[in-house]
Each structure stands twice: as C-alpha cells, then as structure tokens.
Amino acid sequence: MSEAIQVDYGPHEAAMQAYREAGTRVAMATPNRGPVTYDASGRVSQAILDAYWKYGFYVFTGVIGEQELAELRSETSAMLANAPAHKGAATDAQGRPALGAAQQARNLIWVRPLSDPSGGTAAAGGRHPAKMYEPTAPDGAPEHVLQLVLGSLQYSDACLRLYGHPDMLAVAAAVNGEDFTPFNEGVWYKHAGLGGSVAWHQDGTMKWDAPDFDGGTHGFNFMAQLYGCDAANGLWVVPGTHEGRADIKAMCDAAGSDRIPGAIPMICEPGDVAICNRQAVHGSFANTSPNIRVTVNFGFNRRASVLNAEGNGIHSPRAVYDEARIARRSAVIAYAINARKAHFPDEQPYCYQPLAEEMDQYPFDDRARQEMNDYNLLDLGI
After folding, report:
1. What are the structural domain ranges in the chain?
2. 263 SS3 class
3. Across the chain, which distance is largest between two alpha carbons, in Å?
4. Whole-number percent of the chain with pLDDT over 90
5. Which residues contact 255 (CB under 8 A, 6 or more apart)?
6. Is the pTM higher than 0.85?
7. Do 197 and 253 form a contact (C-beta atoms < 8 A)?
C-alpha cells in the first residue's frame, strides 16, 4: 500500500521537525527493542521484561515473516476497500455491502482529515484532556477518512492468525500471567497526509484507585506494524508514566504545546510488533507525512483485573465481567491458535492454559465464524 499525500505542519513545521529528530535519536538509543528471546527454561527473557516494566513499551523486531506480512497487508487493504464509500454509507465504492454492515457494534471510527476529535473533550471518559494541533487539510481532501476498524478478527483471517502468534502469546503470559484474558482488537489506518491525531492519554479508566493497583493493572496492547512507522506517523510514548496517573493537561501546558518533553516515538520496521502498557501516556500526531501507517492492534488483560470488575463502557456495553463472560470472550484466543495451527503446521502452537484441555472444541470453521460475529460486544475494557 502506498500513498503520496504530504502536507506540512503550518507554523509548527520547524519545531515539529526538530522534535521528531530528537525523539528518533532517543528512541533508537533506548534499550527496549530486539527479537523475542527465551531463557534456558523456555521463558521470555528477563531482560525484555525488565525493559518493558522500566519504559512501559518494547519493540519486538522481525516478528512477522514475509508470507504472513503479505497476507496481512492484502486483507487489511481489502478491509479498507470494503469500507463504506463515505461515513454513513451502506455500500462501499464498488456498490458492495460495506464492512460492518452485518454487525450491531459500532466498529468503524472515522475522523476528519488531520483533526483531533477527542482532545479536550469528554470523549472516552475525558481521558484526552489536551487538544492536539490540527494542520490544514490539503485541497480536495475527503470530509472523513476511516481511522479504526474494531472487532477486526471477524473480518480478517490473517489478523485472527496473528492474534494466535506463539511468541506474542508467550509475551502476554509473561506480562499478565498464564491466565491472561483478551481486551480488544482493531486495525488502525493512519492515512498519509490525512490521518488524524490521537490526543495524549492513558488508556485505563477504572482501576487507578484499586488497592492492588500497580504498573500493569490495566493491561497492554500489541501493535503490529505492516509498513513500519516513524516519528511522523507513529505512536509516541512518555517512558515510565505507566506507574501512576499523570496530569496530561499540565504536561502540555508546561510544554506550551502538544510536544511533550521526554516523549519518544515507536520506530518500527515492517513486521515489527510493539507492546505498549495501557497506563503509559501515549498519543500520535496528525500524519502529515507521505507514508501510511497500518497497525494491527490486539490487547490483553490480567484475569485478576477484569474478573468481577465493572467495565468502562468505552469498548463494549457496560457490564460486570463474570467468569462466563470472560470464558466466552477468551474462546477467540482458542480459535486464533487453531486457525494459526492449520495455516502454519510447522510452527509450534502456543498452549493457552485456561483452555488447554478444551482446544479441540474450538476448531476454526463455519460455526466459529458465526460465533465470532459481533464478538467484540464482549470486549473486556477497564
């Protein structure tokens, strides 16, 4: 996928360019990147975990092989081509029933080109307290561009198979415990010269005052990069901010802009997968670069964080997450592992402990596809 639209940052172009260059230098010097490695006992290397807990994010290099990367690119491009012809349309540009038309959930999130729809508003519980700068959209820009497809595992077998990647699930277990649970999934499209910003925020909303709160209470997201990302189109993180609630508005006010000092960008090659703590302060600027970013997101929680907890109502209808709810939502992990096993028979599949004795009950077949329709109405968002 290639796009060539490029715009500048208006009066902030020089300051933004200096900010990107400085951030990139720090990012590449920070010791939180490398392949997934294991110790002699088969556990994820402690050095990886130490770096993740120190900085709040880590870039795993070379996770996705060429075949899988090509499949992911093909299917996420097909999803974009099947999106409504415009926001609210029932059909795509070819007149086909549009992506998401068969689901009850609100799975398609649109944004005005180069805008910040959430900063300084009450959206998502007010967790985006500071407004990002909005560059001027280029002439001829559409009124809206598709930014995010939620519930993505029901639309793409390749995304489902990636969800069952043994290295990523091993990392999930190392971070959240072997009884980890799902959070939610989506595909982000940061369109070249058009993609909107995501204002600085911390994802967690429900557990900041919990008596057992710590740096991992609200889980994490994996972010698989299909075309790579850089300081212009990628996510930025403020290292170490996952340990407690931050005053983001004060941080921006002190900076005198949306360029928070100390933040660094995720720099990824195609096929890299980053992990980002959901409590870390993070955000992304409007994409004025000529390069699209397509990110396959999939997050996981600690079971102890979601069991009998009230959901935040952001990612799915508000509810209390009991054992039955968690079991139903976790079935998607089993479907993913079995789908991956069938597609990559020479790869050692991950053993998901909560369903280890029941894996043969979750073949990825037509019944599974029916079961996964609107599966994300059961997302476990805290």
Report:
1. 10-378
2. coil
3. 60
4. 98
5. 261
6. yes
7. no
